[in-house]
Backbone:
């Protein structure tokens, strides 16, 4: 596509205590409005405003969900044995290659939305930096989501990611944990990153002829409802070629990925999954640490500039506790963790109604 060719022409862990981190005096930026500890970060303020207002429309909607998905699909493209640049922007620069990977189905729509902004600001940010900045900004559009640090300084990608590095919805838990484990993630971190991201997400390519089908009842709120909705009893579907990839949700209007269904039930991950139910602070902290870790895959943080100060404040969590859908009781929870009882939940008043689809970005 044209987007990829334009990029080709352009050539296009946790926070580290550093000298930058010890500086606290803020100076006025050249725009005469913003201030920054590091003047190198001043050029990012207008980009942040542009993305908030013109890409995300200041809401936790389809564009914000897509930007977060792009963070993951770009960053996970690295392997100690197969290579890849990690969070380097290769999924944008070499999209003609990476979009042929089955796991990246639907990413073309995300790039179509994000691409014009990436090109517009390519004089300031490399593709890798842009994707991670957009992801950090997307999170603070969603009430309850954490504000994650942003480090600038990724070089231009030099090659496409090797195929087969992005986990898929029909992968086994063992396959998913092995893939994440190759790049340093524990099973608990996998549950936090996968479950947290699906709290504010929907499926565009799972249900035939439908887009924006939510994974939980509150797709515009970063909360723990996903960990309840997935734990309700459901029926596994078998797709083409015998591959499983979708589970009939107990809640009308939702779709459940096989990978989520299994993470909530496998002995390696089920107690971690259950532990997030109605523990919003724990989820926000674990998810924030996990996404930061993703954003630094393949990068040398010591050589990067900490521009976390440009990320807007997070929106406080204002929702209530996770609940059972109308007509459901605790007997509808498929208990999996053997060492702790599932938290007792109230049932929403009825009658039950279908969860609406997420409005698609125009």
Residues:
């Amino acid at each position: 596509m044209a987007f990829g060719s334009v990029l080709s022409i352009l050539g296009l862990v946790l926070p580290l205590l550093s000298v930058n981190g010890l500086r606290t005096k803020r100076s006025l930026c050249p725009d005469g409005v913003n201030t920054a500890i590091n003047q190198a970060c001043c050029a990012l303020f207008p980009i942040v405003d542009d993305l908030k207002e013109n890409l995300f429309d200041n809401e936790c909607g389809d564009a914000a969900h897509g930007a977060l998905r792009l963070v993951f699909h770009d960053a996970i493209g690295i392997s100690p044995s197969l290579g890849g640049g990690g969070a380097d922007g290769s999924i944008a620069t070499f999209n003609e290659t990476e979009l042929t990977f089955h796991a990246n189905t639907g990413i073309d729509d995300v790039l179509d939305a994000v691409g014009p902004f990436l090109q517009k600001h390519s004089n300031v940010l490399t593709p890798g930096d842009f994707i991670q900045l957009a992801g950090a900004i997307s999170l603070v559009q969603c009430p309850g989501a954490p504000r994650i640090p942003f480090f600038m300084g990724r070089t231009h990608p030099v090659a496409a990611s090797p195929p087969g590095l992005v986990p898929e919805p029909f992968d086994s838990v063992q396959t998913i944990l092995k893939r994440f484990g190759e790049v340093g993630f524990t099973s608990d971190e996998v549950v936090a990153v996968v479950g947290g991201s699906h709290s504010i997400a929907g499926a565009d390519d799972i249900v035939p002829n439908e887009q924006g089908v939510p994974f939980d009842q509150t797709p515009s709120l970063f909360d723990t409802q996903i960990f309840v909705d997935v734990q309700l009893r459901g029926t596994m579907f078998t797709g083409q070629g015998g591959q499983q990839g979708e589970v009939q949700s107990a809640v009308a209007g939702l779709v459940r990925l096989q990978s989520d269904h299994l993470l909530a039930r496998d002995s390696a991950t089920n107690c971690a999954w259950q532990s997030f139910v109605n523990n919003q602070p724990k989820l926000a902290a674990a998810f924030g640490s996990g996404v930061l870790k993703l954003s630094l895959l393949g990068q040398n943080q010591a050589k990067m500039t900490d521009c976390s100060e440009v990320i807007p404040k997070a929106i406080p969590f204002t929702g209530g506790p996770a609940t059972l859908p109308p007509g459901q009781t605790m007997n509808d929870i498929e208990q999996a963790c053997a060492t702790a009882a599932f938290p007792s939940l109230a049932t929403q008043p009825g009658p039950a109604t279908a969860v609406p689809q997420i409005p698609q970005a125009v």
In short: The first strand starts at residue 27 and ends at 28. Confidence is low (pLDDT under 50) at residues 1-21, 238-243. The chain has two domains: 2-165+288-310, 173-280+320-332. DSSP finds 14 helices and nine strands in the chain.
